[in-house]
């Protein structure tokens, strides 16, 4: 049985790589057109969390795959639900977000993964030793908010060539050119230091795909915080002109407009420096991650950022980064006050 499952996963991955976005899962996710599911999605986008989560939970228990995948995805992103679930008992929280059974219940993604390719890939992405195939699949399915962090994950565990292969996926290069270019520049020195062998079979594959990467410009570099050497926060403390330079470039990025509107509301006289400070501290990837839907297949990002819940979610995501507080205050006071709720 396990052998058959592995063979099936290889076949699915081949479809992903050959045919591109969504081809391996071209059919609509079961349950998407259920009127009650659509109503729950509408309520969720309006910020009606308590009622919508209850509806999703009921649908998930009835076997609605779309509801199961949705709950399984947002469960691990506490800023999307903790303002509601944080006051619940452990049992109530499990009943709302997970399938019952055992001490902590079971992720709905694991349940849906039996016959839903997207659920399977999202669930695999949570495992500590996921492979590049999983990242390729998520990029092919267009789930950027789940796929982009896997570039950093691979890089962080020492998988330099794995990270570059992921970042060179056709659906990734728009977001990753600022990551790829400096890393390519430093590959020879990394090889000399023993990070990988020059005979590694991944190197020719990476070389073949470099034509996909647009020439990095100053905006792309600002997006990923890349330069010839890694940035150090100490280089920017007391240097507002440096933050201004970075933020002025970020103001040109179309995908960041929803974030720019949010910053304008709280720090209208300091927008560029605030954006620069946020970028310096961003550890998960480009700031565009903040404007991506948590589940693109069910809620396209343009619909998400236009919804009533986008700015409250953004505020909660910022607050979730409490460990950045001491650093952000040193960079820009208004950015600190905006993120941690001191500006009303």
Brief overview:
The chain has about 350 residues and is mainly alpha-helical.
Regions with little confidence, pLDDT below 50 for 5+ residues: 1-26, 226-230
The major beta sheet can be summarized as:
none
Report how far the terminal alpha carbons are from each other: 57 Å
H-E string:
HHHHHHHHHHHHHHHHHHHHH
Structural class: mainly alpha
Can you give the helix content as a percent range?
Answer: 55-70%
Number of strands: 0
Number of helices: 21
**Mean pLDDT over the residues:** 82
Give me the Rg, rounded. Answer: 21 Å
Strand composition percent? under 5%
Coarse morphology: globular
Reconstruct the topology from this structure.
Elements: H1 2-19, H2 35-45, H3 49-61, H4 65-75, H5 82-85, H6 90-97, H7 108-112, H8 117-124, H9 132-140, H10 144-156, H11 160-167, H12 173-192, H13 202-209, H14 218-224, H15 240-250, H16 257-266, H17 271-281, H18 301-306, H19 310-320, H20 325-331, H21 333-339
Helix pairs in contact: 2-3, 3-4, 8-9, 9-10, 10-11, 11-13, 12-14, 14-15, 15-17, 20-21
Kindly describe this structure.
Mean pLDDT is 82; it is low at 1-26 and 226-230. By secondary structure, this protein is mainly α. The protein has 21 helices and no strands. The longest helix has 20 residues, at 173-192. Helix 8 (117-124) packs across helix 9. The chain is 60% helix and 0% strand.
Describe the structure using short key phrases.
21 helices; globular; 344 residues; single chain
